[in-house]
Amino acid sequence: MPQPKHLSVRFFLPAPGLRPYVTSYYALETGDTRIDDHLHPEWANIRFALSGRWTWSMEDSATDSEVTGDATLFGPTSRAARITASSGAKLWGIGLLPLGWACLFGRPASDYANLGAPLDKLWGEAASALLAGLRADDGDAARVARLDAFLQARLRAGAIPADPILLRMHAALMSGDIATVASFAREVGVSQRTLERLCPRFFGFAPKPLLRRQRFLRALDAVQNNPGRTLIERLDADYFDQAHFVREFHAFMGSAPTAYFAQPRELMRLAAEERRKLLGEALQGLHAPPDGRDAGIKPG
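and the corresponding C-alpha cells:
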C-alpha cells in the first residue's frame, strides 16, 4: 500500500545581495492533504502555483476577492486571508520586505493593499517565463537559483531607487517602542503630515492602522510562542487587558482567539515552525529591515 504524502513547507534564504529586499523563498506541497487555512497579516508576496488548485481571498471582504492565478502578486495585508489548496498541489513563493516592494515595483503599496493581481500585469511576459521555468526545474536548488538570478537581473536592470527614509520608518515600526503616530513621526524625524503621506506609499496603510497591525503581530507571536502560559500572561503591555486583545483578534483574524487556536491550522503551524528555524521570526510581518549600507542606500 502506498504511504501517505504529508504536507511539506520549506523555506530558503535568497542570495546575500537579495536579503535587503526578500525575506525568503518558500515551497508548499500539500501531499494528500487539502488546505483550508488563514494567513496572518503580512508584507507583500509573489506566489507561483506549480500544480494543483490554489485560492486566496480576504476575510470579511465587501467584494469578491478570490484570486486563483498561477503567477500572482499579493500586496501587504491588514487582516487575515484565507488560503485553500487541493491535494497534490505545489506552490513557490517570494516574501518581500517593504524595500523589496519599493525597488522591484515602484508603485504605492496602497494600490495593492489587501489585494491580489496577476503578476504579468506588472512584469509582463517575464512573469509567465519565470513560472514556466520554475515548473520545468528539477528540485529546490534549481528553483532557488532561478529566483536569485531573476531578481538580481531585475534589480540591476530596472530597480527604482529607494528613499532612505523607508528604512528609518521600517526600523521604527519593528522596534515595538512606538505607540502613537506622534511618537512615530518623532522617531523618524518627519512631520505627522509627511508620515501620513509616506506610510501608504511604503507599507500600504496609514500610520495609525499600521501601528495597530504591528502591535497585533507582536502579541500574536508572543501568544503562539508561549503555549504553556495563560493568554493574559502572554500579552504585551500595549493591550489594556484580555478583552482588548480579543477585540483586536476578531478585527484582524475574523474569529476569537480560542476558536482560531482550536482549529487544525496545519499549514500555518508548520510554516511558523520552519520559518522560525531558518529566519528567527515566525511571522513575515516581524522581519527587521536591512542595514541601509547592505541595501546600497546612502544616508539621508
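(Above: one complete record from the training split.) DSSP finds twelve helices and nine strands in the chain.
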